[in-house]
Model the fold of this input.
Amino acid sequence: DVKVTQSSRYLVKRTGEKVFLECVQDMDHENMFWYRQDPGLGLRLIYFSYDVKMKEKGDIPEGYSVSREKKERFSLILESASTNQTSMYLCATFPSGAYYEQYFGPGTRLTVT
Amino acid sequence: AQSVSQHNHHVILSEAASLELGCNYSYGGTVNLFWYVQYPGQHLQLLLKYFSGDPLVKGIKGFEAEFIKSKFSFNLRKPSVQWSDTAEYFCAVSSTSGTYKYIFGTGTRLKVLA
Done:
């Protein structure tokens, strides 16, 4: 079974703080993704990575950055958290190749006050 | 632009009723299609997927979906819902080439009344 873990289920931070969300997978998958999930908006892609040290912007990258120093770990960084970044953050992973599905972590519910 | 539309945002059904959730997509080229489900308090999990072949796909827990290429649709069905099907359902599309980015629909919240 693929296991995708996220560092926290719930997180509360103050406006202006730097926030790190971590995702770790145990299946040696090349591709990793960060989404945010908001009611009525579905899942929106923030960033993705298809290899170590490789990253690409998704649809809503503003205010976020990412880091992938090791294959199994993909970090999402909020440089200066703002209240409009209060959301559920989901990490997903899948192997290279066209015919696989994404595997999701449990999510981190971030509240910025 | 690439997009996925789920027209039903909230659906309320009684147990044993039949379910059909609509999903239409706009995406160039050959696609993979997915339905994911998120039960209350749980993570997203795959319900079913279509890559190629038979357009009628069967998934877990009695769900099925039909890919109609001419209508760019991939509707989810279940003949008789149960209270435990209460969840949020997401349709998603990905390309079979390139970066394999997924485009998700906005989700449908299903509530099944016991």
Notes: DSSP finds no helices and twelve strands in chain B.
